[in-house]
Amino acid sequence: MWLYPPDEKGNSLMACPTKSQEDYIAVKKGIVRKFPNSTQAERKKFIAELDKEIFVDDPVLKTYIDDIIREDLRISSYNTLIEAKNNPKAVKAYFNFINAYHLFTKGQDSYGNICCMAIDSAKKLLKPEKKK
In the predicted model, is pLDDT for residue 109 greater than 90? Predict the structure, then answer.
């Protein structure tokens, strides 16, 4: 995962240097950094923590989304996560959102970004694959 430098609120945009020429150039210039900047063992622990299987009731999920997502994106985010919850291909993105949200509520503000990235990931995983 690659991130641009954080803004004044501490939020970072995710970069996709394999898909975007602009992001690739930013990586080459040293603007974009790899996240998490840690050892392979630490990254595995981090990923395992986010991938833990945990399900919440739909009304609870709605309260999580209402707490962290801006108002105009709440309905679409909720629908995306409900669909991801029931899709074996995208269920990891659902787990990532729930686990990141729990860490966010414990005071680790940077996990709010991961919640948003999990929703974006779910959207991509739910899109039908294009045949070549």
Answer: no
